[in-house]
Amino acid sequence: MQADPFNRNCGSRKVLDRIGDRWSVLVVLTLAGGDKRYGELAERIDGISQKMLTQTLRGLERDGLVTRTVHASVPPRVDYALTDLGRSLLDLVAGLEAWATTHLTEVEAARARYDARG
Amino acid sequence: MQADPFNRNCGSRKVLDRIGDRWSVLVVLTLAGGDKRYGELAERIDGISQKMLTQTLRGLERDGLVTRTVHASVPPRVDYALTDLGRSLLDLVAGLEAWATTHLTEVEAARARYDARG
DNA sequence: CTCGATGCTTCCCGTTGGAGAGTAGGCACC
DNA sequence: GGTGCCTACTCTCCAACGGGAAGCATCGAG
């Protein structure tokens, strides 16, 4: 069986959904700078809800992209870090970020043009 | 003002959401092979609803990534194609697809491990 | 003995997305 | 002339998803 993201039942579609997820991209980018705590991630990624941060981290952990380390202290401390697999995604998501920032003005210009015509 | 996708109000966040969208990625990949009609896209991208296909195409058109050409014939014919801007995304989304397919087995293994521990 | 810190979890509700039926408009066949 | 048929949507209904806020568990500090 060949991997084919265009087939909705292929596992690669699910993988693509995960790595293309809006929050996953930002979490991975944030962890690029080294281990981060839950609160640090929440602070850096503006607009993410606690529920979605937890959910995204669980998904990334399940897929082997990040590790979750609990320190038995009070108050609790949980560190998240990229795995080797997660680090192999870094170039790609950094590329997405770079594209978004460098082509921002072109996209906004296109948008203005489109909206002007209606 | 510097573009920062981590800020929820920055335009680059919206651009990142668009190019990281599950359906946008698949539409762009499909259009990589040349112009496609609405029905061809719907057929190729397994599992997409008509509503989301229309919505995704409109979004991509608005952002200047694809063009929409209506041929005044009966039955109607509408062709979609990538713009230069859209083509500049190709390497990136092809990279995502490649990552998904090549690391599929690793991700599935990680998932099985995670689920086994629970 | 209450407060605060931290990392969640739960509840409520508005928004989003999927499924499927309906629409427009002219040609083609009976 | 009526009945389909074709394509690219558009509309309607409903389930699922995501945001916001509040609750929970733990233990030391004050």
Summarize the structure.
Chain A has 118 residues and is mostly helical.
Mind sketching the topology for me?
The structure is a homodimer of 118-residue chains.
Chain A (H helix, E strand, L loop, with lengths): L10 H9 L2 H10 L4 E2 H7 L5 H13 L3 E6 L5 E6 L1 H4 L2 H13 L1 H14 L1
Antiparallel strand pairs in A: 1-3, 2-3
Chain B binds a DNA duplex (30 and 30 nucleotides) through helix 3 and helix 4.
The unreliable regions of chain A are: none
Q: What would the principal axes of the Cα set say about the shape of chain A?
A: globular
Largest interface: A-B, 52 and 52 residues
- Count of extended strands of chain A: 3
Please provide the ordered H/E string of secondary-structure elements of chain A.
HHEHHEEHHH
Oligomeric description of these chains: homodimer
Radius of gyration of chain A: 17 Å
Strands of the widest sheet of chain A, in order across it, are 1-3-2
**Whole-Å distance between the termini of chain A?**
45 Å
The level of helicity of chain A is: 55-70%
- How many helices of chain A does DSSP assign? 7
Q: Give average pLDDT of chain A, whole number.
A: 96
Class by alpha and beta content of chain A: mainly alpha
Q: Tell me about the biggest sheet of chain A? A: 3 strands, antiparallel
